[in-house]
């Protein structure tokens, strides 16, 4: 055996052990010592980074870089979403939407209605954007229907995360389609075929089962913020309330269509791309809510301003925790965990779909990023997929997307968003979020295998 190969094995084994120790230490620090998640993740990051051979100052820089990157991307979106949610609650817009949805689906039908609404809203949106828009509706729906919170929340979470994993134009599937030179339209059709059973099993079915076994109350601060009783003199109508929610959806969908159907440098394409940026789309929705939901319905400027300001305090811990998760992810990336898993994958010999799914699973577990998992997996497999038929390439792309959401845990920003928004304990978050995403991932894999056997 060559010395270089021995050194490679020693380094990679050390790196994987350090990842496991870091995650275990984070879980122990949060669940046993009751340290705040932010501090626990910071400690775990230094365990992973120094153990993997990075200098302490390199770990600190990587942590700061990762935290700044995720907060720059998701932090402002969460803040704008909190403002929008508070305005919708205070003005009665959330109550109006919830009342109308309750007329469409009562009792057993309600979780199915929530899953469908989440799929429609989440189709063009990043998961983080969709979640901050859906949380006020989830809280008000739970209050008005007198149903368990998880029975309402899980179908909504399943609807959004499944589309994020399996349906272009979401970033992960789109990256895989591009790298593998798959057909976009065919991938969207096959992705929708897989998404429907995944949403059903991970949403209404799993939500009904879990809500009977896990009792979760609406969290105090965010629950009070997002399900407050209406304060406006004249509550807004359903059309304008729904219009505010759908405004970012329409703007981001327009951006996607511009990228696909218009010349890249045309004026219309540039305008649609600008308006469809998540920051811009949500910012415009907040401004529209201020005018159309607040001022136009009898809320004074001071009252609207107070509502916007008070919405920011409850999300401070959430933002710090998400930033820490980004710091952990960046540290593991700079330690070389992606290269480690890539080397293992290059020597594997198994069916394409299973190989694609397993590589994406491993990368997601190690890095906490669906985008990193998808990009790296597609890059590894692209040379091997050159001769595949269009249907096969699309199914491989979908298998990668399915693998990228398997059992997301403490290094995932979505994990901490779900925990903080719904006031969950660590163990509860694993049941609500990690298991839900695992169901989506496994259904996606099984679906691609069945379609491969049937269509190829």
UniProtKB/TrEMBL annotation:
* InterPro entries the record matches: Glcn_transporter
What's its membrane topology? Multi-pass membrane protein
Q: What is its main location?
A: membrane
Pfam families assigned to the protein according to its UniProt record, in alphabetical order: GntP_permease
Q: Which UniProt keywords apply?
A: Cell membrane, Membrane, Transmembrane, Transmembrane helix, Transport
Subcellular compartments? Cell membrane
List where the protein spans the membrane: 12-32, 38-55, 67-89, 109-142, 149-167, 187-209, 238-258, 278-299, 348-363, 396-418, 430-455
Superkingdom of source: Bacteria
The family this protein is said to belong to: Belongs to the GntP permease family.
Q: What is this protein called?
A: Gluconate transporter
Classification from the root reads: Bacteria, Pseudomonadati, Pseudomonadota, Gammaproteobacteria, Pseudomonadales
């Amino acid at each position: 055996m060559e010395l270089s190969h021995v050194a490679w094995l020693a380094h990679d084994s050390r790196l994987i052990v350090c990842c496991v120790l870091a995650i275990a230490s984070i879980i122990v620090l949060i669940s046993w010592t009751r340290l705040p998640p932010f501090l626990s993740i910071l400690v775990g990051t230094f365990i992973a980074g120094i153990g993997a051979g990075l200098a302490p100052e390199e770990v600190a820089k990587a942590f700061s870089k990762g935290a700044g990157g995720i907060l720059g991307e998701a932090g402002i979106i969460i803040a704008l979403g909190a403002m929008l949610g508070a305005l919708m609650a205070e003005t009665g817009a959330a109550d109006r939407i919830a009342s109308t949805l309750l007329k469409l689906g009562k009792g057993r039908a309600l979780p199915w209605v929530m899953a469908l609404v989440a799929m429609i809203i989440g189709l063009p949106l990043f998961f983080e954007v969709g979640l901050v828009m859906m949380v006020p509706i989830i809280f008000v729906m739970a209050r008005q229907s007198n149903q368990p919170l998880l029975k309402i929340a899980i179908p909504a979470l399943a609807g959004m995360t499944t589309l994020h994993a399996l349906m272009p134009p979401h970033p992960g599937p789109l990256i895989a389609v591009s790298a593998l030179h798959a057909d976009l339209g065919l991938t969207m059709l096959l992705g929708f075929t897989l998404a429907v059973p995944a949403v059903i099993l991970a949403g209404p079915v799993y939500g009904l089962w879990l809500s009977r076994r896990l009792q979760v109350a609406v969290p105090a601060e965010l629950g009070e913020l997002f399900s407050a009783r209406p304060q406006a003199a004249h509550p807004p109508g359903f059309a304008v309330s729904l219009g505010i929610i759908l405004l970012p959806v329409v703007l981001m969908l327009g951006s996607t269509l511009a990228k696909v159907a218009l010349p890249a440098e045309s004026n219309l394409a540039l305008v649609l791309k600008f308006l469809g940026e998540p920051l811009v789309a949500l910012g415009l929705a907040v401004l529209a809510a201020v005018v159309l939901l607040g001022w136009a319905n009898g809320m004074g400027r001071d009252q609207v301003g107070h509502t916007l300001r008070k919405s920011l305090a409850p999300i401070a811990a959430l933002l710090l925790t998400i930033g820490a998760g980004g710091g952990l992810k960046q540290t593991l990336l700079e330690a070389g965990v992606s290269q480690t898993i890539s080397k293992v994958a290059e020597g594997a010999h198994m069916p394409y779909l299973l190989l694609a799914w397993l590589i994406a699973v491993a990368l997601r577990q190690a890095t906490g990023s669906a985008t990193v998992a998808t990009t790296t997996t597609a890059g590894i497999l692209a040379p091997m997929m050159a001769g595949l038929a269009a249907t096969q390439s699309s199914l491989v792309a979908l298998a990668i997307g399915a693998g990228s959401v398997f059992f997301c845990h403490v290094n995932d920003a979505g994990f901490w968003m779900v925990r903080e928004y719904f006031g969950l304990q660590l163990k509860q978050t694993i049941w609500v979020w990690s298991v839900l995403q695992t169901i989506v991932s496994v259904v996606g894999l099984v679906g691609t295998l069945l379609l491969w056997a049937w269509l190829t």
